[in-house]
Amino acid sequence: MKTNRRSFLEKTGLGALSLLLSNRLFAKSSKSMDGLTKAKGPIFLSTWTHGQMANEEALRVLANGGSGLDAVEKGVMLIEADPEGSSVGLGGLPDRTGKVTLDACIMSADGNCGAVCMLENILHPISVARKVMEDTPHVMLAGDGAYEFASANGFEKVDLLTKKSKAAFKNWKKEQKYKPIINVENHDTIGMLGMDEKGDIYGSCTTSGLAYKMRGRIGDSPIIGAGLFIDNEVGGAVATGLGESIIKVAGSAIIVELMRHGYSPQEACEEAVNRIVNNEDTKDIQVGFLAISKSGETGAYAIHPGFNFAISNQEGTRLVNSDYLVK
Ligand code: SD4
Questions:
Q1: 3-state SS assignment for residue 66
Q2: Residue 36 included in any domain
């Protein structure tokens, strides 16, 4: 009979030894990156400046008796409906054929998750993702199928192009150069991690993806394990930036896995960034990660300067500039 590694280690007693060694190896500082949080929830952590609004909405939802899942859904819905954001929902910049296509996912403390990708003409892809999670046997619906599912569930058809995004597209058509800009000018996906009063962790992520992407391109944001990952026994992570680079290292899943093995959220975010940087030339690539551990400790890290995030707890909301690798 083939002996697997685990039973081999158990039989030889090496299991206990390797556990001891790995605990030693990973027993590092548990200081939060901004020293703000090491308490239980409620805590919300969201990408970019608009994360402040989203977090405050999420806190309100909890205060009004909503669940942690309601909070991470409703928090990002506010940003989806904001016509000023150029890479989420209404007003999001289109693909190179002029169509706005949406990617979103949500993950619950119970390990369940739902996602939509390449969804068109729906104001709240995050709510469709939640419906996929709660009312279907699937995790992800794409394109026309996602739209039909949304329509059948009462989501209205909405034109997501605004005067501003139409003008930007017209302007882009003149040269048609695909050159993602590395910071907030072109990246304002909202990713949110939330911990409720009980210490249960939830997450959501929603975007219209990269401006002027190829038709059919899907980024990291709707992919569980890339754009978002939650393991309620360990913690959660969410990503923003160039989706292709995040997918290649399974960014959010890696961060949670590292935390499981003793990394602090900050150390885990740094290691995920290192993996991207070791993988490819990141001179013109920005990626930012946020993470929260089961004890409520937080971390954030990016490749380049410019990534910021909002952190909220009962003491209030703060916008924090993330630490970064390329100094
Ligand atoms: C994507 N990660 O589609 C998204 C883009 C993003 O802020 O984060 N924008 O690749």
A1: coil
A2: no
Residue 10 lies in a domain: no
Is 206 noted as a catalytic residue in this protein?
no
72/59 Cα distance (integer angstroms): 9
Global pTM reads 0.88
Q: Which among 210, 244, 285 is the best mutation to test ligand 1's pocket, defined by most ligand atoms within 8 Å of the CB?
A: 210
The answer to whether position 1 is within a domain reads no
* pLDDT tens, residue by residue, 300-321: 999 999 999 999 998 899 999 9
CA gap 24, 164 in Å, rounded: 55
**From ligand 1's centre to the CA of 244, what distance in Å?**
9
Give the separation between CA 297 and CA 26, rounded to whole angstroms.
16
Q: How far is the CA of 136 from the centre of ligand 1 (A)?
A: 26
Residue 39 counted as domain residue = no
State the distance from the centre of ligand 1 to the C-alpha of 281, rounded, in angstroms: 18
Closest among 198, 197, 193, 249 to 220, alpha carbons compared = 249
Ligand 1 test: best mutation among 103, 189, 286, most atoms within 8 Å of CB?
189
pLDDT tens sequence across 211-255: 899 999 999 999 999 999 999 999 999 999 999 999 999 999 999
Q: Which residues line ligand 1 (CB under 6 A)?
A: 87, 187-189, 207, 209-210, 219-221, 240-243
Residue that is written with structure tokens 């200081």 in the block: 31
Domain that holds residue 182: 45-321
